[in-house]
Amino acid sequence: MSHRNIFAVVFWMTGALLSFSATAVGVRALSGNFSVFEILSMRNAAGIAILLGLALLKPDLRAGLKPRRFKLHLLRNVIHFAGTDAWAFSLTLLPLATVFALEFTSPAWVALLAIPLLHERLTRGRLVAVVLGFAGVLIILRPGVETLQPASLLVLAVAFAFALVAIVTKKLTATESTFSIILYMNLIQLPLNLAGVRSPFWQRIEPSQALPLASVCLGGLLSHYCLTNAYRHGDATMVVPLDFLRIPLIAFVGWQLYGEALDPFVFLGSGCIIVGLLYSLRREAKAA
Hints:
Blueprint: H1 3-30, H2 36-57, H3 70-91, H4 96-103, H5 106-118, H6 124-141, H7 150-172, H8 178-194, H9 210-233, H10 236-239, H11 246-258, H12 264-287
Helix pairs in contact: 1-9, 1-11, 2-8, 2-9, 3-7, 3-8, 4-6, 4-7, 4-11, 5-7, 6-12, 8-9
């Protein structure tokens, strides 16, 4: 990878991390009044409205209105729909840091799947980043008997689903624009989420919910925009280790906003993740 691509991956992943965290906080805030399907329906509808508005203002985006690989879009978004709804539901059952920690078995799956499916090379730097990142997650989570519950198994299934989504997303970036990928994600997932809605939920929206609603709608859109651009500039095995940084970030958010425990193991695990990332980025820079 060139130095420019390395910088681009880090830049877009920083945006993705902040956006995913904002989305998680918004989901937690809205979950008392809306179901998971209702929350995600609002996110999809807002995403479609924003993207179509951009297409009206910027004619060069209109080519993305017609997908060239619809079957691949459909595969990606059916898997992503199931994973996202399960992820959002798990946020209402488990502490934020636990959800994110269990979810981050996903990079290990991506690293393994990218070799046969994307024909990527798992270099020593990338392998170290994945191994140390996963070790950091285990240090933060310290899995025990209390972790082995149905909600935790649900998040592990989500992690594998998200790994498959990452692989398909990387394939789509070869021919499809970021605009097209995100637009068809929302177009396909909106009716799927609306199928789980039983009442006109939009009538229950109150002015006091504007901020968490904006966090879900804008954060959900920006997170995938940033993540897709990161995949566009780098291999999947390069991108996913940076995602480990969501663990210490969401642990800090949970501590600040919800009083969730923040102990020294969070800092120890975070240090392990960061060391692996710095080593990987340094080797990528030398190889550029």
